[in-house]
Amino acid sequence: MAAVAAFIDEPTVLGEPLDAAVAPGVADAASVRDLLAEHNLALARTSEISESLKLLVEELADEVAALPSNASLRVDPYLVLAAQRALIGSLRALDLEDESAARREMRVRLEQMRQVYRDLAEGAPIYEDRPIKDVVRWVDSVVDVPQARLADVLAVSARTLQRWISHSDSAAPEGDDARRVRIVAAVVNQLRHALTGPGVVRWFEQPHPRLGGQRPVELLDDIEALGRLTGLAASTRSHTAA
What we know:
Layout: E1 12-13, E2 16-17, H1 28-44, H2 51-65, H3 71-74, H4 77-95, H5 99-122, H6 132-143, H7 147-154, H8 158-165, H9 175-191, H10 197-205, H11 225-241
Antiparallel strand pairs: 1-2
Helix pairs in contact: 1-5, 2-4, 4-5, 6-9, 7-8, 9-11
């Protein structure tokens, strides 16, 4: 049985090392998603919350409570907030005296947590140790706009972008270009849940009041831009969900 510590700087799963949601090829986020689904299915067949489920919820809560202040720079801040809310609801369910009400509430919260880990698993392409060419291809597939428009956001020529995306060309972003690609990918991963692909690109191009009228694309060369832009993008996603 696995619990999650996908949000912390030195993750552990029930005391064992884990690089969930950051290491390429690691399926831990998907495994936790499946584990939560299994517990929810089991809960649908019984009238009370099992001791193993109580333990899982408590350990998840402890690990998320240990999140460092810079967790949102490593993981989607919307997902961190969603996990916290679902876990608070789960802990409250454990305190309910009405077993039927507790069971119903827990089932809702387990599904919310499952969706968090589903999104973590889907978000794997954007993280730091993914090959940079894979990151470029992922962004291109998500935004689904003419490559010239995406190239403008990345501050390169359309031809350069085509070479980065190509499987037959060894050219890849390096240095500042690579950093810019990864910032764009992190922001796209936020916005794709709330906006269409073309809408994501327009978000980069339009002045934003919370940026003092600057366009997000103008901040992509700022080494401190990632946290600021992903937080702003997450708020767009949150408002849409509301």
